[in-house]
Amino acid sequence: MKSERLVKIAEEFGAPLYVYDSGKIKSQYQRLTNAFSGVKKLRLNYAAKALSNLSILKLLNSFGSGLDTVSIQEVKLGLLAGFAPEKIIYTPNGVSLEEIEEAAALGVQINIDNLSLLEQFGHKHPDIPVCIRINPHVMAGGNSNISVGHIDSKFGISIHQIPHLLRIVELTNMNINGIHMHTGSDILDIDVFLYASEILFETAKNFKNLDFIDFGSGFKVPYKEGDIQTNVEELGKKLTERFNQFCEEYGKDLTLAFEPGKFLVSEAGYFLAKVNVVKQTTSTVFASIDSGFNHLIRPMLYGAKHEIVNISNPKGRERFYSVVGYICETDTFGSNRRISEISEGDVLAFKNAGAYCFTMASNYNSRYRPAEVLWHDGKAILIRKRETFDDILRNQVDTKDLFQPKNQKVAVK
């Protein structure tokens, strides 16, 4: 989006503010569907955890997307947004049997990633179709926190536990209708992805009634101009050929499923924040904004590098700044960044703020979470109100007279 448009949106709705471009989300969805157009049955299940605003979910539903969920709350949001239960897959980790049963009662596709719950669920509900999440023991991803398919990961059932898995399925007479994996996020090497896929194909041969194979996601998007990214077109060509070959060997046209999150919404998002103070020290120029890692934690949590631009002065002389927040501890968005000259009151835009940004926001320091706006069909539409002090107090219980200040005697000299 152009700087002038973002400035006007900031003027209308205030800052800090998240803005999402629906057109970019749509083009990314179409890019992925085009890459796998050679597959007879394709299902893109949008990963709700990336950005779970109801309006975004409704937008993806209008494209024909399915939904990937990791909690019962995300399942309920998906149903509220209009997704049919059979188009929602529920892939939790470390939850209770009761939560899995609650999701199953809503009619969504269950995906189980550990042997204990698989056995418990199979004993009680052998007729409910279940997908199994496999850990292929493949290290992939741009950060240790988002690499989830390696041998030390808490996610998935190890490929070395397949014999135990098959025994559970046989003894409970469960209906296994899907196989799933997810190796990590920000995957660049498609050969690593294809290697893991071969492990999934080999595993799938053990199950005779599959409807789909879910290959997860983790496609890397560019974070700056000229940045490297996953070549989904090349992956689509190679995996489509291999998938169709497997379906022929299997004797059935299965559905190829993915669960893209960041790929669909990351580049569509912008985080806008106003500069409160420009502070010169002996070694650095700080641009302090009216936000912090309570609104955008990825730089502090993952070391993520979001491009930062001064949309109030986009053509100004570039200088070096360290952009920091107002939180009561080290709170750095970017160090020594070349940004057009910043004045107090300017609005900065953080790019790639569509995925895992607002959804990870908090009320740390008792600050309000920001508003969200969708740019759709040439209009800026408010899709989440800015929080107020009432929201901070909403679920707190007033203990009234439980604590009374002690009367202190004043010594008179």
From TrEMBL:
Family that this chain belongs to: Belongs to the Orn/Lys/Arg decarboxylase class-II family. LysA subfamily.
Pathway: Amino-acid biosynthesis; L-lysine biosynthesis via DAP pathway; L-lysine from DL-2,6-diaminopimelate: step 1/1
Residues that bind pyridoxal 5'-phosphate: G218, Y356
Catalytic activity: meso-2,6-diaminopimelate + H(+) = L-lysine + CO2
Protein name: Diaminopimelate decarboxylase
Organism of this sequence: Croceivirga thetidis
Enzyme Commission code(s) on record: 4.1.1.20
GO molecular function terms listed in the Swiss-Prot or TrEMBL record: diaminopimelate decarboxylase activity
Protein function: Specifically catalyzes the decarboxylation of meso-diaminopimelate (meso-DAP) to L-lysine.
Domain Orn/DAP/Arg decarboxylase 2 N-terminal span(s) in chain numbering: 23-266
Modified residues (N6-(pyridoxal phosphate)lysine): K49
UniProt binding sites for substrate: R298, Y302, E329, Y356
Cofactor: pyridoxal 5'-phosphate
UniProt lineage: Bacteria, Pseudomonadati, Bacteroidota, Flavobacteriia, Flavobacteriales
Any one Pfam family match given in the protein's UniProt record, by short name: Orn_Arg_deC_N
